[in-house]
């Protein structure tokens, strides 16, 4: 069964940092591009970041560029999102998703930025 | 970045109605567009890929069309389980971008 399971969400103070993980199973992780998408409470979907299958190329929304870093460990079938200089507007459920066409999503993890 | 303008942002309709949702891209994206359905508290589910291809397991009352800058999602005969929020996604160029969403409510 194909699964992507995001974890690491927490309550963090403004200006703080957090690392999200996404554990993949049931498919050959190393051949797929991967993505992070977020959804603030009561709001729409926002694309956050993407990474190529070998990790050589990374992409970011303007809203997170310079603050967030996406990475992956193909030996551990895991995707990461290192989040820094967090702001209240980064509060959201963060989903990881598989494939160039973002075709498969896992359950999200909630990040709350508040003092 | 490519902007995706989705309309309407909300609409009400009755069971059995035909419904059309539109997404316009700020520049050409070929057919690199998908449609997702999201129900409250649930993970988004892909309905349509490559603008007009139906995802396996999705009812045939859902259809998509378009290429370039203008795209539509049509539900031919609304069913009670179709009341949800719908999003388009362009995956032609990074960063990918979503439309603002269309909340479909029961009239």
Map the helices and strands.
The complex is a heterodimer of chains A (115) and B (107).
Chain A: E1 3-7, E2 11-12, E3 18-25, E4 34-39, E5 45-51, E6 58-60, E7 68-73, E8 78-83, E9 92-98, E10 104-105, E11 109-113
Parallel strand pairs in A: 2-11
Antiparallel strand pairs in A: 1-3, 3-8, 4-5, 4-9, 5-6, 7-8, 9-10, 9-11
Chain B: E1 4-7, E2 10-13, E3 19-25, E4 33-38, E5 45-49, E6 53-54, E7 62-67, E8 70-75, E9 85-90, E10 97-98, E11 102-106
Parallel strand pairs in B: 2-11
Antiparallel strand pairs in B: 1-3, 3-8, 4-5, 4-9, 5-6, 7-8, 9-10, 9-11
What are the defining features of this structure?
heterodimer, A: four-stranded antiparallel beta sheet, 11 strands, B: 107 residues, mainly beta, seven-stranded mixed beta sheet, four-stranded antiparallel beta sheet, 0% helix
Would you write up a description of this structure?
The complex is a heterodimer of chains A (115) and B (107). By secondary structure, chain A is an all-beta fold. Chain A contains no helices and 11 strands. In chain A, strands 2, 4, 5, 6, 9, 10 and 11 form a 7-stranded mixed β-sheet that branches. A 4-stranded antiparallel β-sheet of chain A has the order 1-3-8-7, with no helix packed on it. In chain A, a hairpin with a 6-residue loop joins β5 (45-51) and β6 (58-60). The radius of gyration of chain A is 13 Å and the shape is globular. Chain B is 0% helix and 50% strand. Chain B has strands spanning 4-7, 10-13, 19-25, 33-38, 45-49, 53-54, 62-67, 70-75, 85-90, 97-98, 102-106. In chain B, the strands form 2 sheets. In chain B, strands 2, 4, 5, 6, 9, 10 and 11 form a 7-stranded mixed β-sheet that branches. In chain B, β5 (45-49) and β6 form a beta hairpin. The radius of gyration of chain B is 13 Å and the shape is globular. At the A-B interface, β5 and β10 of A face β4, β5, β9 and β10 of B.
